[in-house]
Amino acid sequence: MRYCINCCIHLLPNDLHRQCFRCRGPNHNNQKCPVCKGENKIPLYTDSKQMKLLAVLEVRTDHRESWNGFFCLRKGKLCSLIFGLIIMTLVMASYILTGAKHGLLLIPSPFHYGAFASNPSLMDNESLSDMKDHYQPSKMNISYVKDYPSIKLIIDTITSKIEFMTRQRPDLEELRKQEPHMFSVIPNKFLPNSKNPCWYEEYKGNTTTDPYATNSYALYSKRFRTIFDYLRKVFWNHLYHYKDKHYRLRCLPHFYIIGQPKCGTTDLYDRLRLHPDVRFSAIKEPHWWTRKRFGIIRLRDGFHDRYPVEDYLDLFDLAAHQIQGVLQSEAAKERGKMNNIIIGEASASTMWDNNAWIFFYDNSTEGEPPFLIQDFIHAFQPNAKLIIMLRDPVERLYSDYLYFASANKSVEDFHEKVAESLQLFENCMLDYSLRACVYNNTLNNAMPVRLQVGLYVVYLLDWLTVFDKDQILVLRLEDHASNVKYTMHMVFQFLDLGPLSEKQEALITKSPASNTRRPEDRSLGPMLPTTKAILRDFYRPFNTKLAQVLFDDAFLWKRT
């Protein structure tokens, strides 16, 4: 039995060869068929459209040849399909691997920064480290984007949302309600013949009592136990006896080096403590105002018992003993001599770290903290002097990364973390004010690098809401590194310190720099040029405002 190939293939109803169905039968002959006669080439039709991409099938009268051609066509299509899928898979795999290596994958960020935590009870079942894990972005490689314009769009969005709004300062009664114990310990008047805020406090213990038995700094840190062992030995020698009562001299610092981290504060501290009239706390960075008074020892460990203000005051006992010796000397009594010793404290977190507020102060407005560190310092020490050391925020961030990152440090990893942090900061700025984002604990813990620490002008403006401008000395690390003698003279003048001998001055100004970059970090080299360009754009509006506030274009950092 022979059939026309058009009858063997299921033709569509509108096919031009429908009439071939009439000649179907046992005696059908292609040569005699009026439709098929003289035709040996028949086009294929699919969905009523001629397939011009395929070769025209050769139709022969031989039954076996027509079926062989049909099966060859089916096998060819199948092989082509499989071969095409293999090629496409290999091409896509090559693209993904190459793109991941060279930073060409432009995948949208899966992150969206959530709402601020506003309930202090959140910490009942969740530590700070747990919270960081909860808000930690995915490990997907989305950040290493060398396409500068794509990240520039994020920065442009952030810049468009920047508003430097004046902060409303809380009144004294509100502060008292928040920290009643602190206000009960620190008086509102101090000894008149001391530059430091000092006062006498009655000591009710006896000779067998350990005055530092409950001090949290001594309990939680082995490094400080030697200091407290010495203080125990000399404690009773420095008590003041009056009318069968014992009194101890208590002091707060006269000045604070309040920031910023990785800006040369350690070097400034090491040089300044060589001055014969300067004393510091027993610990360089107590971090009491920002962390310890809230019970934060290390952020990853969550909250511990809060360090009372007495523990903080204990850190100044060594200085208080020397001040007391001057105050009680016969010469001082006769002449009413002013004590020239001044006490300093150098916690580099004081200027910027207000992360703990959200867990203790629940009357915030739109995510902004109602109370800041400077509010409480000013309440007790309205005449305090503040020293700030800054550096180019771009270089500060890279130095911060190299110092605190524990493993897998590289310029590529730094680039990824910068891009990821910018995305998180942008998401916050879309919903909240600049101040709310800068001071938010959840965002700051989620960002892999501390972008917010370099927003110097935001913090400075908030400090200027409570302190006068002449109480704050702002220095640049770049100037300090190039001319140590000049910057130290500025500090001495600011603190009203007396003149030094040439030998004393040489000891202070010619000693080697402290806390410099480690050799293994230096070997990584500078950050990528693309990363630097991105950070320059991000910090530019903040540097511009800082230069305006300080009337000094050096804080634009154009030449660094």
From TrEMBL:
Keywords: Membrane, Transferase, Transmembrane, Transmembrane helix
Single biological process term from Gene Ontology: hexose biosynthetic process
Annotated InterPro entries: CS_Sulfotransferase, P-loop_NTPase, Sulfotransferase_dom
Protein name (database record): Sulfotransferase
EC number: 2.8.2.-
Taxonomic superkingdom: Eukaryota
Organism: Haliaeetus albicilla
SUPFAM superfamilies: P-loop containing nucleoside triphosphate hydrolases
Domain Sulfotransferase: 253-517
Enzyme class: transferase
